């Protein structure tokens, strides 16, 4: 242990708990609308948005407690649903109308869970370290110089918008300084007079500079998933210098980290799915481990706090020390189901395959649940939604008939299994239609991206995205170095198992005919139990059956091919980003009986993890199968979910399993270590289990606040016990 939980932290926890759930209204969205509709109504659109955003920022209320050592508070979630009335600020309605008029049967597609409906936002990190290095004045100087000779009028408008929003940081900060002086807090006033306006010199100044700009950027872009990224990496040089000159101790640094993490949680306490994501450890610019004492301090701090924010993940460099690997195992075992472990070597390899430079790939982090992106180099249309892959297999078998509703769907081109005399032609039809629907969805994202470029220019965050300054464009308009989008192909394991069952049962082993299979699926196997059991016992991905695993790998390659063949705006890439978040139960709800012997609405597998029904040979076999998958093609990142029986899974056991996974080339490892019996009791008596946190699927949440379907999903997952 580097540090211990301090008395100050205990005091802060007590103070914050009295406020949790009682956050004051955030009126940013109200101020934004008022300014746009009234004060700036006659201005050109770009300037209206910039000046209204400035107005909304500086009008935000000032909240300071006399015990604060980090200044600034914004309570995010109360304003997110504020109704927008100025059409210049609405970046959803116009593209939504275009999509629904341009794409036949679009409503049918999303209503039947082919994919999520529209674009997402957020899931991004930005180069906030520039504020530490240059101060707001340094960035203003840079953009003022660029404004002297812009390449075109669009660039001129962008630079002017940036300068207006940079002023919002310093002007809002000055209101805090005035309040601090009124409260007779001269030391904190002096701190805020220094940063973020000027470059940080100490660890305390760096933390304060980070947090004030973070509040400003998140006010401009209030979408869950934006995050600090490599917090320890960029703050460590300041702490290191303080330690060397004797102006700060590790324990004093720990107290600041405690307060920072509590402040993150305070701002969104009742919204577990709101991702403020920190990625610590990992690889440095020199290609070597960047794990530092601050990495350990932050991990110790987070483990000692019973909070769900920030999302806190450990990156594992190729040359990780045994002590650090032990910390990862300890976090998985004792971290209250909040751990997510990231394998640098595997993730960076996949990123480089997608066209990200090796230098930029080193700087990757999670912008939200696990949305992999190079720190401060991508637009925030990174994660866009999901696709229900096993649903496509169902419709391919039935010829477009939904097994849940019984309706023939007009948006598909599936001929049906009975139209095929060999498996290969059937497989090609399945994968071609999957590719077509993925292509449709990315076309939709381009439509939304074009509107965001003019209606959501995001001047402040764009000022801290690589290449926006050079290109003279905001991050949605081709300014960012990478214009990559990603979506999640859900439950590929389930789809692969169903297709493999069709291959074996209908075309090779002649267990049943196509007609007999379809009839059994339509009946949800009622009266067809003998056939269901034969289908169920066909080998599955996850049992280390070479043929089943090879087929699953082939299918995942095919899905990745669909993404690779798509180019989005500005030459960007479409990426598979493989996680479930809360979408697994949604996808399962409209999923009929499957060819591998599952009844309708069976909950689906997480990420690249085999489905529960397939993990019959133990965790060694399940992980062995998963490591045969094409991880190098999962460019946007890919998660696995390994839940353990805590009676069996000691820290040593988890460490050995994790080491196997990392050495084998898996990307992201997560799971739960809570007993099923405790979860079931929490369902019955939620009032007694408010403390219980579980790993959902890319994020952790208080179990009792989850939707019942998600609770059931977590309870029924396979628990490895040997």
Description:
This protein is of the alpha/beta class and 722 residues long. The protein has a domain at 246-366 and 642-722. It has 28 helices and 15 strands. It has a 5-stranded mixed β-sheet with strand order 1-2-3-12-10. The protein has a 4-stranded mixed β-sheet with strand order 6-7-9-8. Helix 9 (203-220) runs parallel beside helix 11 (250-267). The longest helix has 33 residues, at 423-455. It is globular and about 80 Å long. The model has no long low-confidence stretch (mean pLDDT 95).
Q: Proportion of β residues? A: 5-15%
Could you say which overall geometry the principal axes of the C-alpha atoms support? Answer: globular
| Strand line-up of the largest beta sheet | 1-2-3-12-10
Report low-confidence residues grouped into runs of 5 or more.
Answer: none
Biggest β-sheet, characterized? 5 strands, mixed
The quaternary structure here is: single chain
Number of extended strands? 15
The proportion of residues forming helix, as a percent range, comes to: 40-55%
Quote the distance from N terminus to C terminus. 30 Å
The average pLDDT score comes to 95
Query: How many whole angstroms does the radius of gyration measure?
Result: 26 Å
By helix and strand content, what is the structural category? alpha/beta
The helix count comes to 28
Key features?
49% helix, four-stranded mixed beta sheet, 722 residues, alpha/beta
Question: How are the SSEs placed, and which strands pair?
Answer:
Elements: H1 7-19, H2 28-39, H3 45-58, H4 93-102, H5 106-111, H6 129-147, H7 153-182, H8 186-194, H9 203-220, H10 231-245, H11 250-267, E1 277-281, H12 293-304, E2 311-316, H13 322-334, E3 340-343, H14 344-353, H15 358-362, E4 364-366, E5 372-374, E6 383-388, H16 389-398, H17 423-455, H18 459-462, H19 468-471, E7 485-490, H20 492-508, H21 514-522, H22 529-536, H23 546-564, E8 567-568, E9 572-576, H24 583-589, H25 619-626, E10 639-641, E11 643-644, H26 651-663, E12 668-670, H27 676-684, E13 693-695, E14 700-702, H28 708-716, E15 719-720
Parallel strand pairs: 1-2, 2-3, 6-7, 7-9, 10-12, 11-15
Antiparallel strand pairs: 3-12, 4-5, 8-9, 13-14
Helix pairs in contact: 1-11, 2-3, 3-7, 4-17, 6-7, 6-9, 7-8, 9-10, 9-11, 10-12, 11-12, 13-26, 16-17, 16-20, 17-23, 20-23, 27-28
């Amino acid at each position: 242990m580097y540090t211990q939980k301090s008395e100050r932290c205990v005091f802060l926890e007590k103070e914050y708990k009295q406020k949790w759930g009682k956050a004051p209204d955030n009126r940013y969205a109200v101020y934004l609308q008022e300014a746009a509709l009234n004060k700036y109504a006659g201005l050109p659109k770009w300037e209206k948005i910039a000046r209204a955003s400035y107005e909304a920022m500086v009008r935000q209320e000032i909240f300071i407690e006399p015990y604060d050592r980090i200044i600034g508070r914004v309570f995010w979630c109360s304003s997110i649903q504020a109704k927008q009335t100025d059409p210049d600020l609405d970046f959803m309605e116009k593209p939504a109308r275009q999509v629904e008029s341009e794409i036949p049967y679009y409503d049918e597609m999303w209503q039947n869970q082919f994919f999520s409906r529209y674009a997402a936002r957020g899931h991004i990190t930005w180069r906030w370290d520039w504020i530490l290095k240059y101060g707001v004045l340094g960035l203003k100087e840079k953009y003022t110089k660029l404004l002297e000779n812009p390449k075109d009028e669009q660039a001129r408008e962008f630079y002017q918008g940036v300068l207006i929003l940079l002023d919002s940081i310093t002007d809002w900060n000055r209101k805090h300084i005035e309040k601090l002086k009124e409260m007779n807090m001269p030391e904190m006033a002096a701190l805020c007079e220094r940063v973020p306006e000027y470059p940080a010199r100490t660890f305390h100044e760096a933390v304060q500079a980070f947090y004030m700009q973070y509040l400003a950027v998140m006010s401009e872009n209030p979408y869950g998933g934006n995050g600090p990224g490599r917090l320890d990496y960029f703050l460590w040089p300041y702490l290191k210098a303080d330690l060397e000159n004797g102006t700060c101790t590790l324990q004093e640094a720990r107290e600041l980290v405690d307060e920072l993490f509590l402040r993150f949680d305070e701002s969104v306490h009742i919204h577990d799915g709101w991702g403020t994501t920190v990625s610590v450890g990992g690889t440095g610019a020199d290609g070597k481990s960047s794990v530092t004492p601050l990495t350990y301090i932050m991990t110790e701090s987070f483990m000692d706090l019973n909070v769900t924010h920030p999302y806190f993940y450990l990156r594992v460099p190729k040359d990780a020390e045994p002590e650090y690997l032990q910390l990862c195992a300890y976090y998985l075992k004792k971290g209250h189901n909040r751990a997510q472990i990231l394998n640098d070597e595997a993730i960076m390899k996949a990123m480089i395959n997608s066209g990200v430079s090796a230098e930029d790939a080193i700087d990757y982090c999670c912008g939200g649940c696990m949305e992999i992106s190079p720190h401060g180099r991508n637009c925030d249309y990174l994660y866009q939604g999901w696709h229900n892959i096993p649903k496509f297999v169902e419709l391919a078998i039935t010829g477009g008939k939904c097994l849940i509703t019984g309706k023939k769907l007009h948006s598909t081109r599936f001929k049906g299994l009975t139209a095929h005399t060999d498996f290969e032609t059937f497989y090609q039809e399945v994968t071609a239609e999957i590719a077509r629907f993925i292509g449709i969805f990315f076309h939709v994202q381009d439509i939304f991206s074009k509107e965001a470029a003019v209606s959501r220019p995001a001047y402040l965050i764009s000022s801290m995205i690589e290449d926006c300054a050079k290109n003279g464009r905001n991050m949605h308009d081709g300014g960012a170095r990478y214009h990559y989008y990603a979506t999640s192909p859900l439950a590929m394991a389930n789809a692969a198992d169903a297709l493999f069952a069709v291959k074996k049962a209908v075309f090779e082993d002649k267990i049943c005919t196509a007609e007999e299979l379809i009839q059994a699926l339509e009946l949800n196997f009622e009266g067809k139990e003998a056939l269901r059991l034969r289908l169920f016992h066909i080998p599955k991905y996850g049992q280390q059956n070479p043929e089943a695993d090879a087929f699953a790998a082939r299918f995942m390659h095919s899905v990745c091919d669909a993404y690779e063949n798509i180019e989005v705006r500005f030459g960007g890439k479409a990426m598979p980003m493989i996680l479930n978040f809360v979408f697994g139960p949604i996808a399962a709800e409209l999923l009929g009986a499957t060819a591998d012997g599952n009844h309708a609405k069976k909950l689906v597998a997480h990420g690249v993890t085999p489905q529960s029904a397939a993990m019959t040979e133990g965790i060694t076999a399940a992980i062995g199968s998963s490591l045969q998958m094409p991880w190098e093609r999962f460019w946007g990142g890919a998660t696995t979910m390994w839940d353990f029986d805590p009676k069996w899974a000691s820290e040593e056991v988890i460490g050995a399993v994790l080491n196997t996974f990392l050495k084998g080339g898996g990307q992201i490892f997560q799971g739960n270590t809570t007993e099923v019996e405790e979860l079931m009791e929490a369902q019955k008596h939620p009032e007694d289990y408010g403390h219980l946190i579980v790993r959902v699927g890319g994020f952790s949440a208080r179990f009792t606040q989850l939707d019942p379907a998600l609770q059931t999903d977590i309870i029924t997952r396979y628990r490895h016990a040997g």
